[in-house]
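User: Write out your own:

AI:
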Amino acid sequence: MSAVVAAAVLAPAVLFPSTASASDAPKPIGLSGPDTGSDSAKDTAPEDGTPGAGSGQEQRDRAEVQRILADPASGFGVREAAEKALKGGAAELRHFLEVELAEQRQIDDQVKVSQIYAVGGPAVQKAARAALRGTHQDILDFLKTGQYVARAEDEDRAKVEALLADPKTGRGVREGAEKALKGGAAELRHFLTAELPRLRADDNRVKLSQLMSQGGTAVREAAGKALDAGTDEAVEAFLNEGFAKAQFEDDRVEVLRIIADKETGPATAAAAQKAMDGNAEAVRRFLTVELPVLRESDNRVKVSQIIETGGPAVKKAALAAFEGSYADILAFLKDGWAKARAEDEAATTKPGNGAGTGMGTGTGTGNGTGTGTDGSGQQPQTVQPAGLTQTTTGGGTTGTGGTTGTTTGTRTGTGTTGSTGSGTLAATGSDGLGWEAGGAAAALAAGAAMVVAARRRSTKS
């Protein structure tokens, strides 16, 4: 440790050579010259050479050295030299007070400046370097006043830099701060005390106007009241407290709207209801963080339901969207779904020729059966009793059944012109289908197909 201390003491003297001398340093307080009184016997050391009680001057010197040693302002070098002097006699004490004290004080002061330099800001370091390169008086001036002036400049600079680092700082304050940093202590102080309040008030009004234009009903009303008040304090109060309260009200209204929207998916609706039971932070998090993710999940589920219930064109378009990006999902739900449904509807519509015949035999009471061929294919028909009309399912025409009587005969009927259409229209998607009905629609379509197949088998038999 002695080596480290010695290096710290000697480094400033080597790095920053001073032209000061011992004569530049002030004399220690209480230091007096040799006692030239007539009591010569008291000023003479014992003949054996050992320190004795000493003279009055020696006692005064010893007391002065002890006082210097007890002073908390004394540096390491002064203390070390003082302790060494106290172990000696009158000559050592006198040499310390007249020669070593000034030298050690200069070294200690240089060490203090070096220590301040090591932890100081830009202004402090600049002033410390100038002092170390100057005289001992320059060092004393730095320790007494210069370091505090430089420290104030560094503190002002730090405040201005903090304003620039704050993302909430407005444009006007930011421009003023950048300009102040290019100057010195006077420019920094002027900016903080004179320019900053005015620039901040202007920025606050700009920010209020932006929030007012983007906010909901509650935000606009609260912002309008702050502007009507006409004071900087009212505007600042709105930004610090009023805006958060008003935004919470608007956020809750928005969440309720999402819950009530029939297009809202189940996952989104559940999370929205949970957010309504929370605080302002929970509601804002739902709207800004959770909602986009939940909507994407629900939309993907919706497309998967459409794939299950849609026609050929709808299935193809829905699969392509599902395997693509979320942007493809949104594009399909917005436009692609409707276009694919139109394609399926066009593909399942066929024209009939309106011609049909019916063959039947009647016996006994005249009940007869017959087979008919419609205008679009070989779809079997059942002829009802005489006088009744049977409509084909394939766009064909109607035919009349056999006559009443006991004889057997045939009767051919010619139908009227049929309308367009053939067979059962293919499914084209769950247009207007609710989120919870997607599976039910698929089951219903399957059931209808089974009924048709059963009827066909019965007719053939």
Notes: Residues 90-119 form the longest helix (30 residues).
